[in-house]
């Protein structure tokens, strides 16, 4: 599973009872994780994108906007008010 940045790593790992290698931040991955296979969580909605707790973009950090773009072949599998999940397993 991937998440946009480190901000969601701890919560996601805790909820899934997953290890460090099982949930990774796309901001630290080659090509923003777009060629990584699995389930990918994206923050959605203006309120969440601008939220300093969950939003993937900060003025102090130069994260690629591609961390918020599903890779080729990824299919939307779930959507809530604040997050969307795509899969390409």
Descriptive overview:
It is a single chain. This protein has 89 residues and is an alpha+beta fold. The protein has one domain (2-87). 13% of the residues lie in helices and 21% in strands. It has helices spanning 9-16, 46-49, and strands at residues 2-3, 24-25, 39-43, 75-79, 83-87. The N and C termini lie close together (10 Å). 19% of the residues are buried.
In terms of topology, how is this protein built?
Elements: E1 2-3, H1 9-16, E2 24-25, E3 39-43, H2 46-49, E4 75-79, E5 83-87
Keywords for this structure?
three-stranded antiparallel beta sheet, 89 residues, 21% strand, alpha+beta
Short description:
The protein has 89 residues and is of the alpha+beta class.
Proportion of β residues? 15-25%
Radius of gyration: 12 Å
Low-confidence stretches: none
Kindly give the count of domains. 1
Sketch the topology as an H/E string, one letter per element: EHEEHEE
Instruction: Look at the helices and sheets and give the structural class.
Output: alpha+beta
Q: Report the average pLDDT across residues.
A: 89
Helical proportion, percent range: 10-25%
How many extended strands? Answer: 5
Number of helices: 2
Ends: how far apart? 10 Å
Tell me the overall shape. globular
Largest beta sheet: what is the strand line-up? 3-5-4
């Amino acid at each position: 599973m991937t998440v946009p940045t480190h901000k969601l790593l701890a919560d996601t790992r805790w909820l899934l009872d997953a290890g460090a290698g099982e949930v990774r931040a796309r901001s630290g991955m080659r090509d923003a994780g777009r060629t990584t296979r699995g389930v990918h969580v994206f923050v959605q909605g203006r309120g969440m994108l601008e939220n300093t707790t969950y939003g993937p973009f900060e003025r102090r950090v130069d994260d690629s906007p591609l961390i918020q773009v599903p890779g080729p072949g990824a299919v939307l599998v779930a959507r809530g008010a604040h997050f969307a999940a795509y899969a390409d397993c």
